Amino acid sequence: MLATPGTPVESHCPYCALQCGMSLTPRAGAPGTAGAAVPGVPEVQPRDFPTNRGGLCQKGWTSASVLGASDRITVPLVRRSLLTGADHPTDSADGFAGSAGWSDRPAGSADEARRVSPLVPVSWDVALDLVAGQLAGIAAEHGPEAVAVFGGGGLTNEKAYALGKFARTVLRTPNIDYNGRFCMASAAAGMNRSFGVDRGLPFPLADLGGAQAVLLLGSNLAETMPPAVQHLAGARAAGGLVVVDPRRSATARLAGDPASGGQAGANASAVGQAGGSGRADGAGAGAGAAAAQGVHLAPVPGTDLAVLLGLLHVVLAEGLADRAYLDERTTGFDDVARSVAAWWPERVETVSGVPTADLRRVARLLAAAAPVHGGTGAYVLTGRGVEQSTQGTATVTAAINLALALGLPGRVGSGYGAITGQGNGQGGREHGQKADQLPGYRKIDDPAARAHVAAVWGVDPDSLPGPGLPAVQLLKSLGAVDPEGVPAPGRPRALLVHGSNLVVSAPNAGGVIDRLRSLDLLVVCDFVPSETALLADVVLPVTQWAEEEGTMTSLEGRVIRRRAAVRAPGEARSELWIIAELARRLGAPETLAFPTDPAVVFDELARASAGGPADYSGLSHARLDADEADGGPGLFWPVPAQAEHVSDAQVPPVTSASDTSPTALHPGTPRLFLDRFGTPDGRARMVAVDHVGPSDDVRPDAPFYLVTGRVLQHYQSGAQTHRVAELERLVAEPYVELHPVLGFRIGVPDGARVRLTSARGRVEATARWTDAVRPDTVFMPFHWSGVGSVNQVTTDATDPISGMPEFKVCAVDVSMVDVPAVDVPAADALGRRGTLTKELST
Ligand code: SF4
């Protein structure tokens, strides 16, 4: 149901997993409201929500303008060569309204005629008939596994669920995975192994506020989710914020240097500028009030695991562990203790460059904050910086081991957590679009799980396929021909892409582009001509967040409502409708339902999740709406259908009079593990791990580390944020950060055009001098395509357990694109000016 112009609709930001609360108000008389035919751009206002407390970052403030992007896709598009005579558009025009800038499918496809054919507008019937016909033909000739599906961590819970069901029951393919494999797989694998349950934060984010210390590894919160920074104010005030990052990021500057008393204001100002853009910003609230106290550790890229092993070594060597907790609540301690004995601080310093004094200081600081030593609490948190590694699962495991040794997980006010990145990165991995899972976070190779879900779907459990290939391996397997051009039987020859821009976001992107080009059929659901859509045979226009109903699950496991405020433009449709239409065309029986009402889909999802680790069976859209209307704090999974005993700490705080009445409804589970962990014996598993190092380490022909990351103004592949003029003005092009010492040494001045070359490819961008990076390391953000696409050089080596690629570190050479023949003025980022000559560089 559409909103009335002028009436705010309470929803959430479309971007990251913080899912900041916002109100969307359709403007009176604006297009997109009732009766209008083109999209509206509602007014965005922040609202008070526990994660953002009234703050938004620049992306959130400007999020609505994406809805009115000038190149919004409003009709289905198909390569002209795939159409029969009767299906050709009657207007004889190629392309579609606003088609300027669209390119033909580049060379490389197996089908030459199709490859050079333009995308032309067609009706939904023509597009869907064509897709269904081709999928059926490919499956009939090559088997069901020849059709693959790639989902996204930004899809609603309902879409993720429907996509998984469609793949397993209609396509009957095992080959479905999603881009969350790039983001959260190692954290998920580590938490599942140690705790038996994977929920990014097993506690409300606001719990961090009471902590005396927070160890933050590989997360730049101040740029990726600025309103979250306010929850670190308590730790900062106590001098307990520890940031581990090879760069002195905006978040690392929040930790400051205790020896530098004047740093607090500068840090708060830096964050305010980064997030404010002249507007109120959640990062400033709280963050600015705290003194900047803490520690920044800047290890050699790829050595975070050694740092964690060293911290645990110190904790054990100095008798700081919580022995009673370890005895009562964990298994495996002795093995872990033996393994970290080999990581004494001096050895860690040799490997990581982190001084022994800093290691000891941080270990003592964390221990002092732990309840066992009378502290008010401590948290260990990991992010993509340490997880996107071939030893990502091991690093998460080491972080959990450290937290367990200090007695933190499963205690109110302390714990371990992983900071989920994508908007529905949590829910997206719970409901069945992951290669090895069924809804409710069930394992697809578990007979009981298969039987339960098959019963909900009304199919034979034996008809469900088994586990498929994880994302990177799936992408490598694509194509009618192998990388040498030889016909390749048994590989996926058709791919459906939902909510992913693989051409920009996948590692070793050049290889991915080749694989996509070799498909018989590429179908992309998108709302703008993303780089991946430009390669497609069929592009299906889809609705955006403010145009649809559904649910998301935040980084805390809080299930929240997304609500429609405006009408979608043209003929854009929800993926729920597209899936239902394809299922019907592919001959799905009536008993195999694919409802299009998100509330009905959610009810089925809830039944399918019942009894699983991520149990949503006590939830519905109506209950979530009622909870919110009642001022409730939201509902955290698991929420079983029936109330059961819950400890006092699990019950959300009373926020209205009606909350005090007894209820048969389960109140949800804000804090996991208070009584027991999710393992069979209820104890957390400590697992010994060891440091090996990155798969692509520095060497003479690639002597520098490349680390990748994000900037505040852009999100993921930039498909959305590059279409926001306000954001694009602030950061319009890719850049490479390098230390001035490195710049002088290799002859790359500030502002020069620089080239990074790895074993996979090369990328070019503008050099920016800064002393915030190590002299052995360069940093490049990943939001751009083409020559500035850093994933052309990243490695697709993966973690052996999680399948997560090693985005965060690889070896590169750094060189000038155009070597100047004369003196080059260099204005460096440290505020000095100078003249850099070629002689200086040699
Ligand atoms: S922090 Fe994340 S959810 Fe909040 S406004 Fe920014 S992008 Fe949106």
From TrEMBL:
Coiled coil: none annotated. One of its GO terms (cellular component) is membrane. Keywords: 4Fe-4S, Iron, Iron-sulfur, Metal-binding, Oxidoreductase. The keyword Iron applies. InterPro entries: Asp_de-COase-like_dom_sf, MoPterin_dinucl-bd_dom, Mopterin_OxRdtase, Mopterin_OxRdtase_4Fe-4S_dom, Prok_molybdopt-oxidoreductase. Residues 6-69 form the 4Fe-4S Mo/W bis-MGD-type domain. It is an enzyme of class 1 (oxidoreductase). Residues 86-109, 253-277, 649-671 are annotated as: Disordered. GO terms for biological process: respiratory electron transport chain. GO terms for molecular function: 4 iron, 4 sulfur cluster binding; metal ion binding; molybdopterin cofactor binding; NADH dehydrogenase activity. Residues 653-663 have a biased composition (Polar residues). Its EC number is 1.7.99.4. It holds the Pfam family Molydop_binding. This is Assimilatory nitrate reductase catalytic subunit. It comes from Promicromonospora sukumoe.
